[in-house]
Write a structure and sequence with these properties.
Elements (H helix, E strand, L loop, with lengths): L2 H15 L14 E4 L5 E3 L17 E11 L9 E5 L2 E6 L5 E9 L6 E4 L8 E4 L7 E3 L4 E3 L7 E2 L8 E5 L2 E5 L5 E2 L13 E7 L6 H5 L4 E6 L3 E12 L11 E7 L13 E9 L5 E4 L5 E4 L1 E6 L3
Parallel strand pairs: 3-9, 3-10
Antiparallel strand pairs: 1-2, 1-5, 3-6, 4-5, 4-7, 7-8, 11-15, 12-13, 13-17, 14-17, 15-16, 16-22, 17-20, 17-21, 18-19, 18-22, 19-20
Length: about 300
C-alpha cells in the first residue's frame, strides 16, 4: 500500500464528508477538521482557541483559506472538493461561481500545509504549497486553472497481469508483469473509469507554480491521480525542445510529491524520480533501463544539470 498517498486520500475523503451534502455553497463551513492521527471527524472548537502550550511554536492564527477554480478558458468549476491539509485537514467545495472558502480557525505554520484541488473526473487534480506567512486569511487572488483531461486513454491492467503498456496524450507507460496498483480512494470503486490512464501536456504558462520553481522543460498532468504502482514503470514521451535537449542528452524525470506527514512535507514539490535520455533522432525521451516512476500524478522533464 502507498501509505502516504492513501493517508492523504483518506484525509481528503474525510474532509469532503464533513461538508454539508445538501449545499454546494463554498461559504458553508465544514463541520470539523480531520486530525491526521485520528480516524474520526470531530466538531471544531472556537476559532484559534487552542491553549498556548498546544500550539506549534510561532504558529499564527489562520482563520480561513479562500480562492476560486476555473477551467483553462475561465469557466467556473462547481462542486469540486478543495482541501487544506497538513497534520490536520480542512475542506470545502466550490460553489456555482467556482469560489471556495475553507474554514480553518487554528494556529498552524502554513508552510507545512498544501491546498489540494480535486478536478475529478474530467479535469486535472493539483496542489499548491504555501510559503511562510502570518496572514489570518489566506486569500488566493489568482484562480486555479484546471486543464481538461482527455476522454480517451488506456485502462490500467488488472493487478498481477502480464506486461503491457498504457498510452495517452503522447505519454507511454511500460508496465511490468505482475504490477499491482494502489488507487486513490476517489477512484478505487469506479471500475474501468477509475483505472483509465490519461495524460495531458500542460503549457508552462498556465502550469501550477511548482513547474516554474523546478525550472522544467515540459510538464504533464496524469490520471488516475494518486495511483501508485508496485513496480517502476518506464516512461516515453515527446521531446518538447530539440534545441534545448538534443539527441542523446541526459534528462531528469520529475514527479510531484504527495507526502503531507514527512518533515518537511514533500507534497506539492517536484523531485527527480528517474533518469532518462533523448532518442538518437531527438524526437522522444525515454527512461533509462531499470528506471521509471511509480506515482501517477504530475510528471515533468528537465535537461539534467539545469
Amino acid at each position: 500500500m502507498a501509505t502516504h498517498a492513501r493517508t492523504a486520500s483518506l484525509l481528503f475523503a474525510a474532509a469532503a464528508s464533513s461538508i454539508s451534502c445538501s449545499s454546494t455553497n463554498a461559504s458553508a463551513p465544514a463541520q470539523g477538521a480531520v486530525d491526521a492521527g485520528a480516524d474520526a471527524v470531530h466538531a471544531g472548537p472556537l476559532p484559534c482557541s487552542t491553549p498556548v502550550e498546544d500550539r506549534p511554536p510561532g504558529a499564527p492564527c489562520v482563520l480561513e483559506a479562500r480562492g476560486s477554480v476555473t477551467d483553462v478558458p475561465g469557466t467556473p468549476l462547481n462542486d469540486l472538493v478543495v482541501t487544506f491539509c497538513g497534520n490536520t485537514c480542512y475542506g470545502s467545495r466550490t460553489d456555482a461561481t467556482g469560489h471556495f472558502v475553507i474554514p480553518i480557525g487554528n494556529f498552524l505554520n502554513r508552510e507545512d500545509y498544501a491546498l489540494h484541488v480535486d478536478g475529478r473526473p474530467d479535469h486535472v487534480t493539483t496542489y499548491l504549497r504555501f510559503d511562510k506567512g502570518d496572514a489570518q486569511v489566506i486569500d488566493l487572488a489568482a484562480p486555479f486553472r484546471l486543464p481538461l483531461l482527455p476522454t480517451v486513454g488506456t485502462v490500467l491492467p488488472a493487478d498481477g497481469a502480464p506486461a503491457s503498456t498504457a498510452m495517452s496524450g503522447g505519454v507511454t507507460l511500460a508496465i511490468a508483469g505482475g504490477t499491482t496498483f494502489d488507487l486513490d480512494i476517489a477512484d478505487f470503486d469506479k471500475g474501468d473509469s477509475g483505472r483509465k490512464f490519461r495524460a495531458v501536456n500542460v503549457q508552462l504558462e498556465i502550469a501550477p507554480p511548482f513547474a516554474s520553481l523546478a525550472k522544467v522543460d515540459a510538464v504533464y498532468a496524469l490520471a488516475p491521480s494518486g495511483a501508485t504502482a508496485s513496480a517502476k514503470m518506464g516512461v516515453t514521451l515527446p521531446n518538447p525542445s530539440v534545441a534545448t535537449m538534443p539527441a542523446g542528452a541526459a534528462v531528469d524525470v520529475l514527479v510531484l510529491g504527495d507526502d503531507y506527514l514527512s518533515s518537511p512535507p514533500t507534497v506539492g514539490i517536484l523531485a527527480v524520480a528517474a533518469a532518462a535520455r533523448v532518442s538518437a533522432d531527438g524526437q522522444s525521451i525515454a527512461t533509462d533501463p531499470g528506471e521509471g516512476i511509480t506515482k501517477i500524478t504530475w510528471m515533468a522533464v528537465r535537461k539534467r544539470g539545469n
